[in-house]
Design goal:
This protein has strands spanning about 15-20, 25, 35-40, 50-55, 55-60, 65-70, 75, 80-85. By secondary structure, the protein is mostly beta strands.
């Protein structure tokens, strides 16, 4: 679905987490995200992968990749906004 400016609208489902590029999120009971297994979705349908820093290491993750986040991990999208589902 496109908005008035031609940009793709992101449709979120219940339980999805939108992570902004350049912002750091902490995983844990008192943090921003709960520990667990997540599917990584790129927020822009024209982007097939995104660079994400997890635990201080930057890796390239493809759209629909899975990642396991544990208590105390820090996650930060580096190249674009992402959705964790």
């Amino acid at each position: 679905v496109l908005d008035e400016s031609g940009q793709a609208k992101v449709s979120l489902k219940k339980g999805d987490h939108m992570l902004e590029c350049g912002k750091e999120y902490i995983v844990g009971k008192e943090g921003d995200l709960l520990p667990g297994k997540y599917t990584i979705l790129t927020a822009n349908e024209n982007i097939t992968s995104a660079n994400i820093r997890i635990g201080g290491i930057v890796r390239d993750y493809n759209h629909f990749s899975s990642v396991v986040l544990t208590d105390g991990d820090k996650i930060s999208p580096v190249s674009s906004n992402i959705i964790l589902r």
